[in-house]
Protein 1
Amino acid sequence: MTADDQPAAGATALAPVPQTALWTLYHRAVEARRPDALLTDPMAIRLVDTLDYPFAERFGAPSAAAVRFQARFQAQRVLSFDREVADFLLRHPRGTVVCLGEGLETQFWRIDNGRAQWLTVDLPDSVALRRKLLPPGPRQRLLACSATDDRWMREVDAGHGVLVTAQGLLMYLRPGEVRDLIAGCAEHFPGGGLVFDAVPRWFSRLAVQGKLRTGGFQAPPMPWGMDASEQQRLRTAHPAVVGVRDVLPPRGAGPAAALLSYVARVPVLRAKRPSVVHLDFAPDDCR
């Protein structure tokens, strides 16, 4: 990356939902700085050090137990996505990775294979900030477009395989928009896939009620929630959704990993946990 060392004053002017990109960036950097880090992300560290933004004031001091705990959970989610994308690139080395609502995610620099195409689809303010801080290389494109506008689907070269990711995005959409997005991807990308994360319904309700606050940051409403036990219902979004897979986080160490392991073993908790899901779409010859 050739990120400028100049501060980006525009970061503090972002709307609440795009500001969640700063929350996730900060927690990735907090985790990456740990001597026992699960996630290696030097680009996140550099961005946090570069941006003129009151990270600790808004999100909590990096030494705070709650922040370190959230950072470890964030790392588990990020690694789940990294693993799915890396697996896709092994099978489709010249494929296209479409990142919806990518914000300041630095996945490209963690797992790019040197051959794939990457398309970022995000809101105009977020794209402008990303272009300044993470200038795209020859195989990276930025498109200022809402994920709910199917215009971006026509910008994708699907000739070598497509994987769409939506990390930390769908919970901010309305239920009908989520269903339409899944259906659109299934229709436009035969043989492709979609990886996304979902918050459980109880968490969605808290966010809608304004009861989720971290330091000086108020989490935006999250209209869409899905319990992990409901994943198979996603098949009804479109006939071409032929595979629904629960992506479990990689094993780790510490309290966060222990809690995740415990939740996974207790059925009533497993059904109500946050989840990462991989959808597979039928190829043309199977439709």
Protein 2
Amino acid sequence: MSFVDEPVDGIAILLWAADPDTPQRLATPFFHAAAAAAMEIPVEIYFTARSVQLLAPGVAAQLRASERHDKTVLESMREAVSQGVLFYACSDALDAHGLELTALIPECHGRGGAVQFMARAADRRWRTLVF
């Protein structure tokens, strides 16, 4: 069953304003990513700026979008990954926050930043979202 009339090659999501200091913004990107992946659309999430801190062990596990939200941000992230979503960490953001790629949560698939995201944005077969 197809959910769209004109299938796309994928959706690239840039996390920019979604950071640990604003947990109320953190569930939505992963919910949308999981939904698209469940529709069999490849999804890539690019963690940039302060959002890269969500990939550090222990950070997302302590956050909830609200007091009424029963899942942690890490659980929302893992749901997206379980649907096939790929997580990429911006090299410059890692450096800016003193993080090493090898020390990130296992759900991170590697480095990916401005060049990779802009390549997706320039590709007519891909759609992009920014949170």
